[in-house]
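Encode chain A's predicted structure.
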Amino acid sequence: MAEKKHTDPHNPEHRFGQEVGRKAMRKLRAREGTGKGAWFWLGMFGLVGWSVAVPTVIGIAAGVWLDHQFPGRVSWTLTLLFAGVALGCFNAWHWVKQENRHD
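Encoded structure for chain A:
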């Protein structure tokens, strides 16, 4: 009779065992890293975008400030714009390289 108790689908212990099994399988699949969905890639796209945009905007702001403080032949805005884009691209490359290392 004890064997029937554990295999009865209406038994709470049986349902609990099934639920634990489903959650364990879900965790194992997540650890394997398979099935990276659209949200993951959308997040990675956003991360790469922000890692380029933030240094670029900071470079522009610093360049505008320097141009107002020290006017001259050199455009600090353009110089720091290019420096910010270069730094941002390096930063984005670093994030993508790090993510590829995990695959």
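Residues 39 and 45 are 10 Å apart (CA to CA).
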